[in-house]
Automatic annotation (TrEMBL):
<feature type="active site">
    <location>
        <position position="152"/>
    </location>
</feature>
<keyword id="KW-0963">Cytoplasm</keyword>
<dbReference type="GO" id="GO:0046872">
    <property type="term" value="F:metal ion binding"/>
</dbReference>
<dbReference type="InterPro" id="IPR000291">
    <property type="entry name" value="D-Ala_lig_Van_CS"/>
</dbReference>
<protein>
    <recommendedName>
        <fullName>D-alanine--D-alanine ligase</fullName>
        <ecNumber>6.3.2.4</ecNumber>
    </recommendedName>
</protein>
<comment type="pathway">
    <text>Cell wall biogenesis; peptidoglycan biosynthesis.</text>
</comment>
<dbReference type="InterPro" id="IPR016185">
    <property type="entry name" value="PreATP-grasp_dom_sf"/>
</dbReference>
<dbReference type="GO" id="GO:0005829">
    <property type="term" value="C:cytosol"/>
</dbReference>
<dbReference type="InterPro" id="IPR011095">
    <property type="entry name" value="Dala_Dala_lig_C"/>
</dbReference>
<feature type="active site">
    <location>
        <position position="25"/>
    </location>
</feature>
<feature type="binding site">
    <location>
        <position position="274"/>
    </location>
    <ligand>
        <name>Mg(2+) 2</name>
    </ligand>
</feature>
<keyword id="KW-0067">ATP-binding</keyword>
<keyword id="KW-0464">Manganese</keyword>
<comment type="similarity">
    <text>Belongs to the D-alanine--D-alanine ligase family.</text>
</comment>
<keyword id="KW-0460">Magnesium</keyword>
<dbReference type="Pfam" id="PF07478">
    <property type="entry name" value="Dala_Dala_lig_C"/>
</dbReference>
<keyword id="KW-0133">Cell shape</keyword>
């Protein structure tokens, strides 16, 4: 911790740490929240954890809070709803505002904005109902099937044939009536943490699984994280700049993460952005921050500063 950071935790006032929530990623949010809670206490910040439910508005109004630290993942917390609620109450909060949060949560519209700006992302079709499956077939196999508004790889599957397509679509649709079919990208995968207006060192993810699925993310011990990424400096610089632009162009700000892949020819494809990424001890943003010389408490402090 720098001396500057020791200076004045009081300037943040009383912080509501919003963690848990009702999304499919509740458990991860609770894990992230516990880490952030401990860190804020170490930093001397006055913090109270709140697990949002129907009484949230009342608790925020009567709790005497000065700001909120949002560590809710997924729908309801990462998608602009909480951000709108806090804005209405006049409470500053960490990270992206309503627009960036909402677009970041919507993989379909996020891709539309990127394409509109000439940023590269895998070809896709939107599957609204069974009638759209034929256009997915027309994209060509393999395909990645994913719910539009989910995270943690939930409801996702690689599909190699028409026979598998309908089953995968139904499984994804159980999470979200809107489903994306994307052309499969074969090549290395990276994630780029964003802090303030800076792109942190890329992490290259390697898993023996078919893709970076839920187990590979949270429980498998076979996932490898390479940071530094192993790319040459020029390529790394270009990908970091691409990630930062992809993040900012959808209105995201403060902190977050951009996922991307390279195909066999080295051409980049943006996958998605996360406006409230994981902050568990295994999470990627803390890992990238560490590589940039920013320890967990420094990182939490700097995220809290995005609410000022
Ligand atoms: N078009 C694609 N081709 C190949 N693999 C893909 C493709 N899209 C996604 N993947 C794989 O699936 C994983 C999850 O995809 P994505 O990042 O879009 O979903 P997510 O569930 O929102 O992730 P997060 O937990 O980061 O929020 C990626 O990390 C990657 O391994
Ligand atoms: Mg992802």
């Amino acid at each position: 911790m720098t001396t500057d950071m020791k200076r004045a935790p009081e300037r943040f006032g009383k912080v509501a740490l919003l963690m848990g929530g009702q999304s499919a990623e509740r458990e991860i949010s609770l894990r992230s929240g516990r880490m952030v809670h401990e860190s804020l206490r170490r930093l001397g910040v006055a913090v109270e954890a709140i697990d949002p439910d129907a009484t949230l508005l009342e608790r925020l109004r009567s709790g005497g809070y000065d700001r909120a630290f949002i560590i809710l993942h997924g729908r309801g917390g990462e998608d602009g709803q909480i951000q709108g609620t806090l804005s209405t109450l006049g409470l500053p909060y960490t990270g992206s505002g309503v627009l960036g949060s909402a677009l970041g949560m919507d993989k379909y519209r996020c891709k539309l904005v990127w394409l509109g700006c000439g940023l590269p992302t895998a070809d896709f079709v939107l599957l609204r109902d069974e009638g759209d499956l034929s256009s997915a077939v027309a994209l060509g196999f393999p395909l990645m099937i994913k719910p539009v508004h989910e995270g943690s790889s939930l409801g996702m599957a690689r599909v190699d044939s028409v026979a598998d397509l309908e089953r995968a679509w139904r499984a994804a649709a159980a999470f979200d009536p809107l489903v994306l079919a994307e052309r499969w990208i074969q090549g290395p995968e990276f994630t780029c943490a964003i802090l303030g207006r800076e792109a942190l060192p890329l992490i290259r993810l390697e898993t023996p699984h078919v893709f970076y699925d839920y187990e590979a993310k949270y429980s498998a011990d076979t996932t490898r994280y390479h940071c530094p990424s192993g790319l040459d400096a020029e390529v790394e610089g270009r990908l970091r700049a691409l990630a930062l632009r992809a993040f900012e162009v959808v209105g995201a700000s403060g902190w977050g993460r951009v996922d991307l892949m390279l195909d066999a020819s080295g051409q980049p494809f943006l996958l998605e952005i996360n406006t409230v990424p994981g902050m568990t001890d295994h999470s990627l943003v803390p890992m990238a921050a560490r590589a940039a010389g920013i320890d967990f408490d420094d990182l939490v402090w700097r995220i809290l500063e995005t609410s000022l």
